[in-house]
Amino acid sequence: MSAFLEKFDVGPPDGLRVAVKDTIDIGGRPTRAGSRSLQNAAAAVRNAVVVDLVLKAGCRIVGKTVLHELAFGITGLNDWAGTPVNTRYPELIPGGSSSGSAVAVATGDADFALGTDTGGSIRIPAACCGIWGMKGSFGRIDRRGVFPEATTLDCLGAFAKSLPMLDRAMQIILPDYRQSKLVPRRIALLTGLADASIDHEVEACVTRSGLEVFKADLSSMSAAFSAGLKVINAETWTAVGHLVGTGLVGGDVAERLKQAANVTDAELQEAEHVRHLFAAEVDTILENADVICLPTLPIFPPTLAEARLDRTAVSLTRLVRPFNLSGHPALTMPIASTPNGPISLQIVGRRDGDEDILKLARHIFQNG
């Protein structure tokens, strides 16, 4: 299936081609979030701020992309809008929720694509499709005109096939982008969190960088994963729970939304406590390291058939979701292709240190 929910051209014909996730408003077109329940949504009155930035930079928008329905899923499977085909690994899931944006880049239909990441929704599909993806620091990229409106987790970001193109995309959507002055020196490496073969590739890649590498531990990582789930469930239910009553939401998403309705105030209070604890723990490590490196996925991407048996696949996000809770920027870069699927490295940096991540990723890529 195509990566696009709708193809069109907006902007100069010779500009960089940009695909836009259909949770991001484009004036005069509906934002349907990949859901039949929103198929008759009214057209957006104006562009999202990030769309205006893209157009101001002389880019050409080539369409809106398919996603896991209501941006509330990991596999990218969508029975109404269609499941985009993971071009390099067609038997594997494309990843979600920004599945179409990742596939549009992987197929070469877009030079870069915009996505959103609330619990891994850029990094997961980028890793599944073997491309680059980055979410910015929470709150740094203007989210006006992005669905859902209210969130404490969601970050805008971009996909690209190469690091230079990803850097260019981030320069465009970060209006206060500044050249990094970082001199790469030290990397904190998290190990023992993924399949042994994935861990091995990640450690080998980081070691080849020539930088000082030390093993670190985030003791509250598991608690942050669970807390992040509580927060996204509560916030998504508040935003779109009313759509369940239409009977038009896909079964897997509808069931997950019904369960999300059960998050209690006490659970949210505890999640906020974990948020502060985990963020402080990450900040402490980053006082002694330029970045934190770890795998993006704990296992290889599942096949489409396997995903049909576990439509939520939430456990795939256990290494990415915690950094939505804390608000730190994170980038995923492809480092290996194996018979079992792609392997990607995740690089996490200081809050508002988005440019430093890109610079350090360049160092690892050039030396690894």
TrEMBL record:
Keyword match Hydrolase: yes
GO MF annotation terms: amidase activity
Residue ranges occupied by any Amidase domain in the UniProt entry: 9-358
Statement: the UniProt record of this protein carries the keyword Transport: no
E.C. code: 3.5.1.4
Enzyme category, top tier: hydrolase
Pfam families reported for this sequence: Amidase
UniProt entry keywords in alphabetical sequence: Hydrolase
Protein name: Amidase
Source organism phylogeny: Bacteria, Pseudomonadati, Pseudomonadota, Alphaproteobacteria, Hyphomicrobiales
